[in-house]
Amino acid sequence: MTGRVTLTFLGSGDAFGSGGRFQTCMLLEVPGSRSLIDCGASSLVSMKKLGVAPGSIDCILVTHLHGDHFGGLPFVILDAQFSRRERPLDVIGPPGIEDRVRQAMEVLFPESSQTPQRFALRYREFSHGCRTEVAPGLVVTPFEVQHFCGAPPYALRIESAGRIVAYSGDTEWSDALLEVSRDADLFVCEAYFYEKKVKFHLDYATLEAQRHRLTCRRLIVTHMSHDMLSRCSSVGAEPAYDGMAVQL
After folding, report:
1. Rounded distance, CA 54 to CA 2, Å?
2. DSSP category for residue 195
3. Which CATH number covers residue 129?
4. Is beta strand 132-135 parallel, antiparallel or unpaired with respect to 121-125?
5. pTM over 0.90
6. Is 196 among the domain residues?
7. Spatial separation of the C-alpha atoms in residues 159 and 137, rounded to whole Å
8. Residue 1 pLDDT
9. How many independent structural domains does the chain possess?
10. What pLDDT is stored for residue 3 in this prediction?
11. Cα distance between residue 229 and residue 81, in whole Å
């Protein structure tokens, strides 16, 4: 099956809003479904600013359990409840994701996790290397990477309509990224700093040193700090920005 696949960066920033950017959130549109890849705390705001109806989302794929990657879920779930959503919503992420979302909801809005939804809210867990059909014609393979967050963190290899989109999530360099991005049409990769080494994160200099080993057709860097943003004009990879749309 072939067709148009579009990836839109609803948020391309780091945890601290460097450059005034929203936290990590990408909209993946494939034939028959719309998904979010990560859902940082600012995601509901970015969706509404960019005209993406939250009710149109079929599933949310979460790479790891840090607030700038899953912290928007309580707001998305409550918005769905108050807007009288009826269609199911699938949330798929690391082991323990349902408990972590419920805990976050209770911290932010006490007793909100106990309120029955009008729609089916379905949680599923990724397992390293296990190909999972998350929606009709949308297959995701998670690969465990290196990023401390209290649960296994994953990079994702996403296949649909004859296209492959790969995403590193947050991680220091790992050879798992070679398999995640193998022959991908697009590899979206973290480049937190330009060359500063920070444990559990990937800097651009390290990524560039590994570039010859990557077989992806296109590379876009994201999750950039102020340091990296100030150097974007001098790097070879494409930098992401909020609202950037890529058609494959």
Report:
1. 26
2. S
3. 3.60.15.10
4. unpaired
5. yes
6. yes
7. 8
8. 46
9. 1
10. 75
11. 37
